[in-house]
Amino acid sequence: MSPETSWTFSPGPLILVALLLGSYLWRWRAIRATPTGRRDAPTWRLAVYLTGIVALAGALFSPIDVLGEQIFAMHMVQHVLLIDVVPILLLLGLTKVILRPATRLLHPVETRLGFFGGPIFAVLVYVGLMWLWHVPTLYDAAVRHETVHVLEHVCFTFAGGLYWWHLLSPIRSRLALRGLGPVVYMAGTKVFVGLLGIFLTFAPNALYEVYEDQPRFWGLSALDDQALAGAIMAIEQSIIMGIALAYLFVRALEESDRADEREERFADV
Fold it and tell me: Mapped to the 3 state alphabet, what secondary structure does the chain carry?
C-alpha cells in the first residue's frame, strides 16, 4: 500500500511565506540600488535566503506534510526542517544592512526581555520543546488534530528561530555569545536533543498509538518507523552541529583578523 502524497496549501502558511519572501526581496533590491549594494546585499545571501524559503515551503506544503501524518520518519523530516534547516538558511540570508530597519526595535526589546532574551533561555526552549512535543500524548494529539499540529509547528519554528538567532544573527548585542560561548551553546544543546533521537532509535516498544493504528507503509513496522525517525533526528543533530561549529570557527578567525587590523590602524594613528 502506498501512502497519500498530496500537496496542501493552507491560507495561513501561504501568507507567512509570501510575507517573508516579499519583504526580503523588496529590501534586497532597494539595497542593491545603492553604491554599496553588492557588498551590503550580495547575491549569495539572496540565494541562501531563497533556499530557506524553498525548505519552508517544502515543510509546509509538499507531500512531506501529509506523509508526516502517516509515517513517523517523514514527520521527523518536517520537524528538523522547521527547527534547524529553515532558520539557519533564513538567518544566513540576512546582513546588518538588510536587517537595519528592524535593528532599532530589536535592541530595546532584547534589553527589556533580560533573561528571556538571552542564550540560556533559547537553549531551554529549544531542548524543552523538542522533548515536550515527543511525549506520546502530545505527539499523538498533534498528528490527529489540525489545531494542535499547527501549534506544534509554531513552537518548533519559534524555538529554532530563537536558538539560531544567538549564533547567526548579523547584529551583535550585549547578550551575544563570545569566546568559547558558541561552542558550549551548540554542543550542549545538540547533545541533549541527540539523546532524544537515540532514545527513539533504540526504544524497545513503539511509543505512539497514532502510528500503530496506521497501515504499514514502505514495509515499515511501527517500531521500525520509530527507529528510523530517531536515527534521522540523531544524525541530523550531529551533522548540523559539525557544520555549525566549523562555520563558527571560521567566523571567529575572521573577526579576530578584523580586530587585529583595527588595532594596527589605531596604533599607526
Answer: CCCCCCCCCCHHHHHHHHHHHHHHHHHHHHHHCCCCHHHHCCHHHHHHHHHHHHHHHHHHHCHHHHHCCCCHHHHHHHHHHHHHHHHHHHHHCCCHHHHHHHHHHHHHHHHHHHHHHCHHHHHHHHHHHHHHCCCHHHHHHHHHCHHHHHHHHHHHHHHHHHHHHHHHCCCCCCCCCCCCHHHHHHHHHHHHHHHHHHHHHHCCCCCCHHHHCCCCCCCCCHHHHHHHHHHHHHHHHHHHHHHHHHHHHHHHHHHHHHHHHHHHHHHHC
Please indicate, yes or no, if residue 5 is contained in any of the structural domains: no
Please check whether residue 3 lies inside any domain of the structure.
no
In a domain, 110, yes or no: yes
Within a domain: 6 = no
Count of all residues that appear for the chain in the document: 269
Answer positive or negative: Cα dihedral of 209, 213, 218, 222: positive
Overall domain count for the chain? 1
What is the domain range of residue 262?
11-268
32, 38 Cβ separation under 8 angstroms: yes
Contact by Cβ (8 Å): 65, 8: yes
Report the predicted TM-score, pTM, of the whole model to 2 decimal places. Answer: 0.88
Q: Give pLDDT tens digits for 113-156.
A: 777 878 899 999 999 999 999 999 999 999 999 999 999 999 99
For 64-91, what is each residue's pLDDT tens digit? 999 988 999 999 999 999 999 999 999 9
Pairwise CA distance, residues 53 & 224, whole Å: 31
How many Cβ atoms from other residues are within 10 Å of residue 137's Cβ? Answer: 9
